[in-house]
Every structure is written in structure tokens, then in C-alpha cells.
Amino acid sequence: MPKDAPRRWDRRMQQRLAHGEAAALGELYDHFASLVHGLAHRVLGDVAAADRITREVFTHIWENPEAYDPKQGPLRSWIAMLAHQQAVRRLRHTESAALADGEGTPEDLERKVHRASAAARADYIVTAMPAPLRAALELAYFQRRDYRQTAADLGVTEDEARRRLRLGLQLLATAHDIPAHTEGPTGTTGYGRAL
Amino acid sequence: MNRPDQPDPHDGEEPGRGPRDGDRQGDHRTPRIPAPRSPVEDGGLPLPQVPGAPPHHVQDARDNGDGGSRGDGLDHHVLKSLLGAWALSACSAPEATAVEEHLGTCGPCAEEALRLRDAVGLLHPEESLDLDPGLRTRVLESCLGRRPPRIPLPEWAAPYDAETARLDALLRDIGDAEWHAPVRLRWFEDDVPVNRKTTVAGVIAHLLAVDGLVGAALGLTDPLGVDAPPVPDPTRRTETFWGASRFPPTRAVREPWRDQTHELIRTVSFAGGGSGRLGVEYGVAGARGAEGCRTFTVPLRDSMVERAFECWIHAEDIAEAVDYPYEPPSPRHLHHMIDLAARMLPVTLAERRRAGRAAPSRELVAAGAPGRSLRLEVEGVGGGEWFIPLDSPGASGSAECEVAHIALDGVEFCRLAAGHVAPEEAAAGQMGDREAIRDVLFAAASLSRL
């Protein structure tokens, strides 16, 4: 597939949505519903809440297809960012209500929001990172292979295996970089063009 | 999305870190980083084997020949490169010790180690959360309610849209090996149950080949290409498609199948609801190729419902083969399918009568006049009541002329029409003319095919 084919698909999808094609909305859902639902579920830990975020995100896209700017990155990143924002907003809302009822402290709330937010972003980073890095992490973490075995399994040098594990974790660590309180409608970091 | 050049924290500027970094750098020598996740041996799992002594990468002259498994004498560069493996507990014990000693003396490495170890905590096994299939309908309806589409889906295409989406969601969840799980396709031929063995991928190839008939009616590219048989016979097309490759189909068949379903939905949407009257030609190949073949035309709107029905029935075959739960279609869509089968019964009865497989007509009435009828009562959500004229497809079904009554569940009726339940065994309440009941049940089963 030519390198720019996905971008062309993104632009075409945007045009079809703008044109009011119901079939395009169905295709959009089929492509991205599990991404949106998965991120929302990671943040909120509740299926019904994730269902609701899914509905809100797709409604937003259907009503505002022009809000997507293909120059800023893939459609997938934009949708992940919308799902993340919406879910974190919801979490903050429900947690603030709990706080008002005397549960926990503002620090607890911030910690919880940050943790949930980082976990969701990490999920996305793992799926979006280059496949060789993901494969190395998969072997070392889930299959509990050491780096020499990982190297042998992947058919690469041990140096390369160590490099991939380190780089994979460095990418993953960026999930922690955005303080939760800066996340708002403008906080698009973490789903940018790089990933 | 490629970031092969992630900056090395040692080479570039330091990203912002916690306040405790920097100022304490080097002021104590004990490892200040807690060890990573518990070693393998604590988990009751077998220890990763440490391979013996490949001579490599140890750049220190003190390397005494037992190679990289030993941690002593590793220089900063090597230790730094080990940080990822260390954080994942994926290096040898001597290496881990060497890394931990190094962290007590090297601030930048200690910072990175902490960061990477925290990152390990973010790794989760992928959750396989099955999306509620009903969620798709709810989300799309909510969207379309907020902003009505300029190009809506024709109502008769909605079951196909929903069923292909459900099957695709199932396919997304199954592993490579499951695509080759054996599936036994079952149907009725000449009033006896027959079956045919294929695989999950083979079933999708079958759907792709037969959906291609509908595509042809709309001017889409035939997935069979030049191999397409001249007779638009679903069975012949499937056999051709299966036979076109020397290798059995794999999961690679999913994408062309899914692309074609999307293309069909898109095309009928643009053609509009009125396109439902367009004809789709089906054929039954004769025993000797084109000779003796016959064709018949089905309106597109019925054809799309029939494809939705096939998609559901075969999705059930697949789900059973890979041991997944699978629900019946939504009541509204199920109703479309039952209605189509019920509407096909009078013509099917007439064909069977001509072939000597159904009782002769008893009373012929003028076309359109009420004739002897069987009341088909389909229970459950999506069900309803249909009056099937028994003696001629030209007669109209009528409550006044009811001579028999069958009552059965909607899903059971669909399984009967799919050839998955034998007519004699269908769990149906029966009252009245036994011959009429038998004829209708057998006619329903004969609607099935590969």
C-alpha cells in the first residue's frame, strides 16, 4: 500500500461524513468503535460509561466532521484524542461529585485522574508504536523471555533487542508526561502526529 | 508514526522530571531505585534460561570469559542499553546487579531507570472487551437523530448493514488458527439434509462470492473476475471461487469481503430506496453447464434481506465452530427476514407441486381471490402472522379460508428456512390440515441452499 493511502482514506472519510452519507458513519464506527470504547473503558472502568462516551464521540464527529484537520495527523489519532478527553472529563466530573460529597481529597482526585489518563494513553501508545518495538515488549513482558531469548525469537542481535526494549519503554513512558490538570479541550498531546 | 530517533535522554535536553531529581545526584551509593517487578522465580514460573557465555558486547578488559551473563565490568554505555531489559526483569541476575550498582552512581541512568520501570506498570494484557452489538445501532441512531443524513441507508439495507457489521466484529476477535477451524455447512436438498465441510475462511469466501451476485446487479466489480461462471448460480460461484486457488482461503479473505459489503451498502444508499425494485438475477445451473439452467429475478430489496439472512446464519456456523456466543438479529431485522421467507413460500409450494413434492391443488380460485390458507404464526420479538395461500401463489392468503395453523418461534422458523432444523423436528405447534402443514414445513426447509 502506498504510504499516503491511509491519509487519503482519512480525507475521503471526512468528505463523505461532511456530505451526510449514513453509510460512511457506519464504516467509521466499524473502524474506530473498539478504539474509542477501549480507551473510555480504560479511563472509566465501566462498560455503561464507555458506551456513553462512544455515543458522544461518534455524535461529535458526525455533527462536526470539519473539525478534523488531516494536516494535524491521522484520523485515528484525532478520534483517540477525542475519546480520551471526553472520558477524562467524565471521570473528573464524577470524581468531583464524589469529592463534594466528602469522599477523598483533591489530591486523590488528581492522582486518580492522572493514573486513569496515563493508562489509557499507554494503551494507545502500545497499539501505535512501531511493530518491532511492540513485538519485543510482548516477548519480554507477556512471554517473560529475557532479552537474549527475545533477540533469538526476533532474529535480531542482542544489542538490537536491548535497544528495542528500551526504546519501547521510553515511548510508553511518555504516557505519564501530561499532568492531568492541563488536559482540557485543547490538550491534544499524546495523540499527535508522532504516534 | 515511526519514531526511530527517539532522543536519548543522555544526548539531548533533559525532559522535565520530578523535583527530587538532580539535586541528589550521586549523594548516596545504594541503589535508590526499587527493583522492578518481582523476579520470575517468585511467581512460580520457570526461570528464563541464561544461555552460556556468548562472547559479545562486554567491552571491559576484565571480562574473564564467561560473557555477557556476568554483570561485572560493564561500562556505562552497555549498562545504559540494558535499562529497558532491566526494567522488564529481562536480563541476567549479574547484569541486573551491575545495573543496580550503576544506578547508585549515575544520576541520568537512575532517572531513566525509574521512568522505564514506571512505564512497565502501564503494560496491560490487551483487554478483549466484546462490544455490545446493539451499541452500534444505538450510536448510529443517536447520530442520525441529531443530524439527519443527506444520503440515508434504505430501510431494506439496514439488516445487511447490521449483520455484516456483527459478523465482522466476530472475525476481528478470532485468531489466525481459528480461520482454519472446520465448519460444516448444512442445508436441504431434495428434502434430505446435506452438508459440506469447509473452514471459517471458506465460509467468508462463500459469502463474498454470493454477495458478488448482488454487486453485479449494481455494476460493481465481480470478485470472481474472469472466472465467474456464466450462470449466476450461488453454489456454482462458490465452488468456482473455492477452486480458483490451489490453497485454502485464509484470513486474507476478510478484507475483500468487508470491502464489498461496504461498497454494496454505499451503492444502494446512493441509488436510493427506489432502487429496491431493481432486479438481481439468480440462476440454478443445470447438470450439464449452461444447458438446462434456469434463472429468476429477485428484487434488490429482497435480495439484500436474503444476504443479511445468509450472513447471520453463516455467522452462527462460524461462532459455533470457534465456540463464541452469537445472538439472533435485532427484532426489526429478524422480522424482515421472516417476512421474506413467508412471502417466498407460495411460489416455493407451487414449484414443489410441479415436481411432485407437494400435494396437488385442491381448489383453484381466481387470481387475487382468497384461497385456502395456512396461518403461520411466528412468536417472539420480530414475529407476526402470515397467511400462506396453499393452492396457488396467485391466490391471496386469508384468515377466513384458514385450514391449518402453525405456531413457532421466530429464530426456530429461520433455522428451519436455513435448513438447520429438519421439517419433522421443528418445534412447532400444529393444528388443522396435516398435509398442508407438512407441505409448508418442507417448503420452508427447501428455501435453504449452500
From TrEMBL, chain A:
<keyword id="KW-0805">Transcription regulation</keyword>
<dbReference type="InterPro" id="IPR013325">
    <property type="entry name" value="RNA_pol_sigma_r2"/>
</dbReference>
<keyword id="KW-0731">Sigma factor</keyword>
<keyword id="KW-0804">Transcription</keyword>
<dbReference type="InterPro" id="IPR013324">
    <property type="entry name" value="RNA_pol_sigma_r3/r4-like"/>
</dbReference>
<dbReference type="InterPro" id="IPR014284">
    <property type="entry name" value="RNA_pol_sigma-70_dom"/>
</dbReference>
<dbReference type="GO" id="GO:0016987">
    <property type="term" value="F:sigma factor activity"/>
</dbReference>
<dbReference type="GO" id="GO:0006352">
    <property type="term" value="P:DNA-templated transcription initiation"/>
</dbReference>
<dbReference type="InterPro" id="IPR007627">
    <property type="entry name" value="RNA_pol_sigma70_r2"/>
</dbReference>
<comment type="similarity">
    <text>Belongs to the sigma-70 factor family. ECF subfamily.</text>
</comment>
<protein>
    <submittedName>
        <fullName>Sigma-70 family RNA polymerase sigma factor</fullName>
    </submittedName>
</protein>
<dbReference type="Pfam" id="PF04542">
    <property type="entry name" value="Sigma70_r2"/>
</dbReference>
<feature type="domain" description="RNA polymerase sigma-70 region 2">
    <location>
        <begin position="28"/>
        <end position="93"/>
    </location>
</feature>
<dbReference type="InterPro" id="IPR039425">
    <property type="entry name" value="RNA_pol_sigma-70-like"/>
</dbReference>
<dbReference type="InterPro" id="IPR036388">
    <property type="entry name" value="WH-like_DNA-bd_sf"/>
</dbReference>
From TrEMBL, chain B:
<keyword id="KW-0804">Transcription</keyword>
<keyword id="KW-0805">Transcription regulation</keyword>
<feature type="region of interest" description="Disordered">
    <location>
        <begin position="1"/>
        <end position="73"/>
    </location>
</feature>
<protein>
    <submittedName>
        <fullName>MDMPI N domain containing protein</fullName>
    </submittedName>
</protein>
<dbReference type="InterPro" id="IPR041916">
    <property type="entry name" value="Anti_sigma_zinc_sf"/>
</dbReference>
<dbReference type="InterPro" id="IPR034660">
    <property type="entry name" value="DinB/YfiT-like"/>
</dbReference>
<dbReference type="InterPro" id="IPR027383">
    <property type="entry name" value="Znf_put"/>
</dbReference>
<dbReference type="Pfam" id="PF13490">
    <property type="entry name" value="zf-HC2"/>
</dbReference>
<feature type="compositionally biased region" description="Basic and acidic residues">
    <location>
        <begin position="1"/>
        <end position="30"/>
    </location>
</feature>
<feature type="domain" description="Putative zinc-finger">
    <location>
        <begin position="81"/>
        <end position="110"/>
    </location>
</feature>
